[in-house]
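Example 3.
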Amino acid sequence: MKPWLAQNKTHFVELLKQQSLPHAMILSGVNGAGKKELATWLSNTLLCQSLNTENINNIQNFQELPCKQCKSCNLYHQHTHPDHINIELTTASIGVDQIRKVSRFFEKTAQLATNQVVVIESAESMTESAANALLKTLEEPTNNSFIILLVNDEQRLLPTIISRCRHIQLKPPTGNDLLSYLDKDNDESANQDPFLNLSHLSELNDEHINQQYINFTECFIRFLIEKNQRMQLSSAIQQNENSINWLERTTINLMRAEAKWLRSIKVDGFSDDKLLAYLQQNKEKLWQVYLLIKRYNKQRLTLVQLNNEYSLEKLLVDMWVIMNAVED
Ligand SMILES: [Zn+2]
């Protein structure tokens, strides 16, 4: 179990007690954030026969749900529950036929459980006609029907779909927070690489990619890899108020690329293989650079202009020193 999901599960139990669980939900988050785990827990719970209004209020802790013993739980476990559909991405996109299956499913009433639950994985991969078909279903929710959409990036859904769903963003912990989880908890998440979980910052994904950003990224990567362009980078940072966020964002994206979470970062003159090999050799250094940028960002808010310029130069020098350090 991913320990940071406990708060989401606790919240869902509260909503169930108040009978105010939304009919349509979007669970968003990067790979590894726990979307599937949370959706599985919630859909199994919604179908579990122990979930009825008489005793839901007696539930003290989300760990009591689902019961894992009733007929519903057994069928769910065997992937044969008649009141549950799970839509997966099996080809390049989720087509309209798969979504029509969902609408037909909701036209019938539940067979065994009280609720009907549909989970749509990789919902951002719906074709336009599939998305429009889903929209119709979302517009006419039936009682006891629940749709859970799983997405990496909710911005790729139609705004009309987003507006009809409750959006729940899953943010795995990063850095020291993550490490503290791993110390406490010796389960399978301990085997996960802390670097993988750096990419949760939604503000780093939402921003429009524009040419200025692309140029900046390239300049920064050349600074890191080729150890030149320090002057260009310094003036680029001073000219653009977004650039400090871009430093952080680019560093995170490089770590994501290293962890193969991001397919590639295009830099002229570097093949994907060459860049990947470089990143793999310098993973620890990148982490140090990331920490420097974080610290600089924190300090920056409290500095006056003059100190600000000095500390920017210091940041660049410190990054340079790290990237040029010789491994033992
Ligand atoms: Zn059960």
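The chain has a mean pLDDT of 82. The chain has two domains: 3-172, 199-324.
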